[in-house]
Amino acid sequence: MHSFCGLDFGTSNSTFGTLNPASQQAMLLPLEDNKVTLPSAIFFHFDLNECFYGRAAINEYIDGEFGRLMRSLKSVLGTPLMEETTQIKAQQLPFVDILTSFLQNLKIKAEQSAAANGQHSFEQVVLGRPVHFVDSDPQADLLAQDTLEQAAIRAGFNDVVFQYEPIAAALDYEQSVDQEEIALIVDIGGGTSDFSVVRISPERASRAERKDDILANGGIHIGGTDFDRKLSLASAMHELGYKSSFKDKAATANFEKNFSIRKSVSKDSYTESTKMIMPSSYYHDLATWHRIHQLYDRHTIHSLKDIAYRVENKQLIDRLINVINKREGHRLAIDIEHAKIELSANANTHIDLDYIEHNLGLNISLEQLRDSVNHEIKNIQTQAFQTVQDAGLVPSQITKVFMTGGTTAIPMVKHAIEALFPHTDIIQGDQFGSVGLGLAIDAGRKFA
């Protein structure tokens, strides 16, 4: 019976792994509806005074239950939002309490699942982490890790150690190789794009210490939720008034003076001739998973009602007000995420927005997705190349590229990596399971 585990706390999905007591092979534990992934989501049900997690949380929200949905908790780590509280009915909950609640529920679900194999509790954990929680800010990065460690201990783990997520994926991939390779591990998930250049082989796999086999690590804070945000801004947000013009300069000359509006108007509106453009911050918040709930306050609604009478197309702002009033922001974000996934296999997709306005719908094309994330794709490609350079290598010296993470399913992401390594075999791993399996392997080495 093992008391150790590997936990991949992901921006979009989480997994929980350990070693099979009989075979000693890494395995992922079913967490919900017999699935090994658990969406990283919490729904605070206000009427029942109860928390729902994972798919159940999302379903409660979609069913229209009264409460608050929170997703992409990992994206908050290392940001100023980490120090803020979230209002849940009459309570103001610190972020670390919300994070602890999710990890504790994840641990309970895993222990219930493991009970069938004679395992009863997990005390020691190897937690996955991105190469950088925060780009170019070591102090914020350390604070993010410390906060995650604190939450894990409060959730019931006695021993907590961390491993880079791409290194964990390398440990999983290494189980299948039959010769020595210099592999580039590409792990692009919901929040970050992480890369490691690692020497792997059947012989090296048995070593407890692998520090010398890690040639370079690199990462950038770009992931699937950034793709969601950019696609939303390029499509759905225009149906809600994004970049709409005010009627004319004269009509809005005293706008800020006479009306209570968001401070962002003065810094993100701009003038073109006599035109003033709708503040963009509303739309950026609505398109960003962990900032959506910040719009749900009376001041926002009051400001938008003032604005609506001063834009050229009031109907669009009325739609935005409707989304915020009915707290449908996460539902719209879910629809955009599903559209992105659909476009991984199709040239076009359609979103039904009838819950915003009767008979409202939106067609989105693969070309729109490609154009909206072009900048992010280039940055991912640049970071992958930089990591190879940091290892003292050129792309032709990489013998295998191993890809994992849900965002690697997006065609333009795959094509960008393939373009860097035209003569190298590209191996597609378990998109949602490789990191968790590798963390379980690492836990066995560290705690067994």
What count of structural domains?
2
Helix fraction by DSSP (H/I, runs of at least 4):
25-40%
Structural class from helices and strands?
A: alpha+beta
Q: How many beta-strand segments?
A: 20
Query: Please, how many helices?
Result: 15
Summarize the model shown.
The chain has 448 residues and is of the alpha+beta class. 37% of the residues lie in helices and 22% in strands. The chain has 2 domains: 4-179 and 430-447, Nucleotidyltransferase, domain 5 (2-Layer Sandwich); 225-349, no CATH class.
Which features would summarize this protein structure in a list?
22% strand; six-stranded mixed β-sheet; Nucleotidyltransferase, domain 5; 448 residues; single chain; 20 strands; alpha+beta
Topology, pairings included?
Blueprint: E1 4-8, E2 13-19, E3 26-28, E4 38-39, E5 41-45, E6 50-53, H1 55-62, E7 67-71, E8 85-88, E9 91-94, H2 95-114, E10 124-129, H3 138-154, E11 159-164, H4 165-174, E12 181-188, E13 193-200, E14 214-220, H5 224-234, H6 255-258, H7 265-268, E15 271-272, E16 275-276, H8 281-286, H9 298-308, H10 314-325, H11 329-342, E17 348-352, E18 361-365, H12 366-372, H13 374-390, E19 400-404, H14 411-420, E20 425-428, H15 434-447
Parallel strand pairs: 1-10, 10-11, 12-19, 19-20
Antiparallel strand pairs: 1-2, 2-3, 2-4, 5-6, 5-7, 8-9, 12-13, 13-14, 15-16, 17-18
